């Protein structure tokens, strides 16, 4: 792949931040179903706003406007459209298709987590409320509002290469294998998590085997040989990882406070 050495430099630069997330004490806190519900009620916002990063990239890199114009970079257009196909219309465990957001909501309902706040937010946005106003009305946890706000700062103001780097290195699946084992253990003890296990397996399979490598090729394609773009891409990825770390801290605090789920 062209620019392999630049990708490796970027990976090395963000590694300390990735490790801080993958080794976070949050995972040790999720040992029972109530704690997992609290986690899901926060994490669902990251599942949802991830799609806005993806759609921003699709708008930038494909012929998504009218009149249609051929994409300037067919490889990037192909890569992003393949990722959208899997994230927006993946296979359901029974039949049909659903976005990963909808798969996550199904998993939340199955284990008794509260979908009300995120569904209310989406309905208000569907009715025309602005994202900033919806986040500021007090119905969203402060830690969640800060995280989603940072995402939309990037969606609205970031350059294409910055959004691509944040999407690829800051928003790829950051739930380590130990988390899947935790979920499996809780499922054996309490049940109700088969759909969540399906979501995790499907998401990690797509990210690791397909979407992750494609997204890295996308970053290389939009940064090319520009030193400035690679530096800005690194800064965007680090910023997104730090925002996720702050979200994890917020979730961990809520779990330790024994918030009802």
Task: Write the SSE topology.
Elements: H1 4-22, H2 26-29, H3 33-61, H4 74-88, E1 90-91, E2 97-98, H5 100-111, H6 116-126, H7 131-136, H8 142-157, H9 160-170, H10 177-190, H11 194-223, H12 227-256
Antiparallel strand pairs: 1-2
Helix pairs in contact: 1-12, 3-4, 3-5, 3-8, 3-9, 3-12, 4-11, 5-11, 8-12, 9-11, 9-12, 10-11
Please provide a written account of the structure.
This protein has 261 residues and is mainly α. It has a single domain (26-63, 72-88, 96-256), classed as Up-down Bundle (Heme Oxygenase, Chain A), CATH 1.20.910.10. The chain has helices at residues 4-22, 26-29, 33-61, 74-88, 100-111, 116-126, 131-136, 142-157, 160-170, 177-190, 194-223, 227-256, and strands spanning 90-91, 97-98. Strands 1-2 form a two-stranded antiparallel ribbon. The chain is globular, with a radius of gyration of 18 Å.
* Class by alpha and beta content: mainly alpha
Mean pLDDT score = 91
CATH domain topology: Heme Oxygenase, Chain A
Summed up, the domain count is 1
* Main sheet summary: 2 strands, antiparallel
N-to-C span: 46 Å
Tally the helices: 12
Identify the CATH class: Mainly Alpha
Strand and helix order:
HHHHEEHHHHHHHH
Strand order of the largest sheet: 1-2
The Rg value, from CA coordinates, equals: 18 Å
In total, how many beta strands? Answer: 2
CATH H-level name... which superfamily? Heme oxygenase-like
Shape label: globular
Query: What fraction of the residues are assigned to beta strands by DSSP?
Result: under 5%
Please name the CATH architecture: Up-down Bundle
């Amino acid at each position: 792949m062209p620019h392999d050495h630049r990708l490796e430099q970027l990976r090395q630069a963000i590694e300390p931040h990735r490790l801080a997330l993958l080794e976070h004490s949050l995972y040790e806190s999720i040992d029972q179903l109530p704690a997992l519900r609290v986690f899901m009620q926060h994490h669902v916002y990251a599942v949802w706003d991830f799609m806005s990063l993806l759609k921003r990239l699709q708008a930038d890199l494909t012929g998504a406007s009218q009149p249609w114009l051929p994409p300037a970079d067919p490889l990037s257009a192909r890569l992003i459209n393949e990722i959208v196909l899997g994230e927006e219309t993946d296979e359901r465990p029974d039949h049909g298709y659903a976005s990963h957001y909808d798969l996550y909501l199904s998993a939340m309902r199955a284990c008794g987590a509260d979908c009300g706040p995120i569904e209310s937010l989406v309905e208000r946005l569907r009715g025309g409320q602005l994202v900033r106003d919806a986040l500021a009305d007090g119905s969203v946890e402060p830690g969640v509002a800060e995280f989603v706000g940072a995402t939309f700062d990037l969606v609205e103001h970031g350059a294409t290469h910055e959004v691509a780097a944040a999407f690829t290195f800051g928003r790829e699946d950051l739930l380590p294998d130990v988390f899947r084992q935790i979920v499996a253990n809780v499922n054996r003890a309490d049940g109700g998590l088969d759909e969540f296990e399906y979501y995790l397996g499907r998401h990690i399979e797509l990210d690791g085997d397909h979407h992750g490598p494609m997204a890295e090729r996308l970053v290389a394609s939009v940064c090319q040989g520009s030193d400035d773009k690679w530096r800005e891409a690194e800064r965007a990825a680090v910023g997104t990882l730090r925002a996720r770390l702050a979200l994890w801290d917020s979730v961990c605090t809520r779990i330790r406070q024994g918030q009802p789920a």
